[in-house]
Amino acid sequence: MILSAAVFLLFGGALAGVAAGLLGIGGGLILVPLLHWVLIAAGVDAAPAMVMAVATALATMPLTAASAIAAHQRRGAVDWRLVRRLAPWIAAGALAGSLLAAWLGGEVLRRLFAVFALTMAWRLWRGGTAREFAPSLPGPVAAAISFGIGTLSAMLGIGGGSMTVPWLHHRGLAMARAVAAGSALGYPLALTGSVGYLAGGRGFEAPVPHLGYVYWPGLLLVALATIVTAPWGVRLAHHLPGRQVALVFAGFLLAVAVKFAW
């Protein structure tokens, strides 16, 4: 069982790395269901297993994001001025979300995860008319949206790209550049969110090795795989048409929504 779980985590981590580079997401939409299954198989009850899966998926993302950011930066695709503007609010929201998640419990997180994935799939599938890039929202509005993205992302164990990429693409940013910005914003989000899960899980007990709510053997295996494969996804993101990438993203989110709703 230990060997099969390790292979499962490495394979899932590889898929999550490709998704991180291709779609600008942290990979949590793949990793949370995968880690949830592994933890339940290891004897963790379903509700705490969901919180641990979310925490562990989020903790893998600073390394995944760093690998994807480096690959995007080599292509000059990261708008650092935009990232600097949004990052502090996203990071603050992530800290709040990580502390709130443990209080809500695993069943609520599972339902939120399904609803969120379905909503994002519908928005991307619907698409929209191309427009000139205009991300300049009023300061308080951009701050509120960014804080909300950080909060919900940390609660669901996702890197934020699932919301920032559609948002920035809707505002007119080319899909490849929106993906690059999503990757860059995922780094501070995952870092501060992980700190919240480590602090919030003090005193938590489980039949598997853990730090706070983070299942650290799973973290190591997944991170190893995602670091290697994230640049592969970046190459795909810069070669595939933007609409094609958006449809791939939508199909993936729909599958995840159905899985969690079931």
Molecular structure report:
The protein is mainly α. 79% of the residues lie in helices and 0% in strands. The chain contains 10 helices and no strands. Helix 1 runs parallel beside helix 9 and helix 4 (80-104) packs parallel to helix 8. The relative contact order is 0.23. Mean pLDDT is 80; it is low at 129-133.
Beta-strand percent range? under 5%
What general form does the structure show?
A: globular
N- to C-terminal distance: 25 Å
Using only C-alpha atoms, the radius of gyration works out to 17 Å
Structural class: mainly alpha
Number of strands: 0
Order of secondary-structure elements: HHHHHHHHHH
User: Quick one: biggest sheet?
Assistant: none
Percent of residues in helices comes to over 70%
- Poorly predicted ranges: 129-133
Mean pLDDT: 80
**Helix run count:** 10
Give me some keywords for this one.
262 residues, mainly alpha
Indicate the topology:
Layout (H helix, E strand, L loop, with lengths): L1 H22 L4 H14 L4 H29 L5 H25 L1 H21 L12 H18 L4 H10 L4 H26 L15 H22 L4 H20 L1
